[in-house]
């Protein structure tokens, strides 16, 4: 009886070992399937001296990107190459940096750290989430669908920008701070040589009805550099006009408008003086009615 009992115990132990190994294999498969592989980290911060609207736009982008990391404001005296060291300290391989000139012109840098490329944009028509007061809403940390216009596939520099935007704004799969839901769409469309960025909520997945959430802003491309925050220029936008030049053209048009108004007023005054100097001819001969006295006068003169 003793050897039979020992054989039964050995069979039970072998079954337990096989069950444990199967469970461990299934757990390993589950962990490998739920593993966070894409380690994209985006540093989103700004320079000192930006206004409230630019600061709210930066905060909106941070809330939309769970893989973003904040940092203190960069001093205006520091060079932009310092940002590469800051990204290395923060363990970030992408960066979105905001800077402002003359307290009115907002610029945005998008860079792949540390080797590049990087692009500089002029930010126009900024509308934040709180300012728009739209009815759209989405889960914080949800993953977005990035929708790009067809024109992003036509030219090389737009293809490069599409890849950079995808690496920055796309939330990595299985990110610890992200939610496993897709309930919003970020659209990138090209119109009037500018990139229009808008954010929508997916209300119904069946008919794909959308409601805008915000923020909403427009990017006017200035240059694309080979390095990170500098280096040789890959592409320069020939249709870009700086804000200073745009304001100068507006002032020039306003001055021309004043000159045209002044010349029109002078011509009007000249016509008024000519009208006053003009002597009107009498119309009595034209509208005079012939009477019997006139007839008798003519007869006496002829006789």
TrEMBL record:
UniProt entry keywords in alphabetical sequence: Nucleus, Ribosome biogenesis
Question: Cellular location of this protein?
Answer: Nucleus, Nucleolus
- Output the InterPro entries linked to this UniProt entry: Brix (IPR007109), BRX1 (IPR026532)
Q: Give the GO molecular function terms.
A: rRNA binding
- Chief location of this protein within or outside the cell: nucleus
Task: Cite a GO CC annotation.
Answer: nucleolus
Q: Which portions of the sequence form the region Disordered?
A: 1-33
Q: Name one GO biological process term.
A: ribosomal large subunit assembly
- Composition skew (Basic and acidic residues), residue ranges: 13-33
Q: Which residues form the Brix domain?
A: 40-230
Q: What does this protein do?
A: Required for biogenesis of the 60S ribosomal subunit.
Give the family from UniProt: Belongs to the BRX1 family.
Record-given protein name: Ribosome biogenesis protein BRX1 homolog
Q: Which species is this UniProt entry from? A: Clytia hemisphaerica
């Amino acid at each position: 009886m003793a050897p039979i009992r020992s054989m039964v115990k050995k069979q039970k132990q072998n079954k337990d070992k096989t069950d444990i190994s199967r469970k461990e294999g299934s757990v390993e498969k589950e962990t490998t399937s739920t593993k966070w592989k894409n380690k994209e980290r985006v540093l989103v911060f700004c320079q000192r001296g930006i206004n409230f609207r630019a600061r709210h736009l930066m905060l909106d982008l941070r809330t939309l990107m769970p893989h973003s990391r904040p940092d203190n404001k960069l001093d205006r005296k520091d060079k932009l190459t310092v940002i590469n060291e800051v990204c290395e300290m923060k363990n970030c391989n992408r960066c979105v940096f905001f800077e402002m000139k003359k307290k009115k012109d907002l610029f945005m840098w998008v860079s792949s750290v540390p080797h590049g490329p990087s692009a500089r944009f002029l930010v126009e028509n900024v509308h934040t989430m709180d300012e728009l007061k739209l009815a759209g809403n989405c889960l914080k940390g949800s993953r977005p669908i990035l929708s790009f216009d067809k024109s992003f596939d036509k030219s090389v520099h737009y293809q490069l920008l599409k890849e950079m935007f995808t690496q920055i704004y796309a939330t990595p799969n299985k990110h610890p701070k992200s939610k496993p839901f897709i309930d919003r769409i970020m659209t990138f469309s090209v119109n009037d040589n500018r990139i229009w960025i808008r954010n929508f909520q997916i209300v119904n997945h069946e008919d794909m009805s959308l409601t805008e959430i915000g923020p909403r802003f427009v990017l006017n491309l200035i240059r694309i550099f080979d390095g990170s925050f500098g280096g040789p220029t890959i592409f320069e936008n020939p249709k870009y006009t700086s804000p200073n030049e745009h304001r100068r053209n507006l002032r020039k048009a306003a001055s021309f408008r004043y000159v045209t108004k002044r010349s029109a007023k002078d011509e009007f005054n000249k016509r008024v003086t000519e009208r006053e100097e003009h002597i009107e001819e009498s119309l009595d001969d034209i509208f005079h009615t012939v009477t019997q006295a006139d007839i008798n006068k003519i007869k006496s003169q002829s006789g």
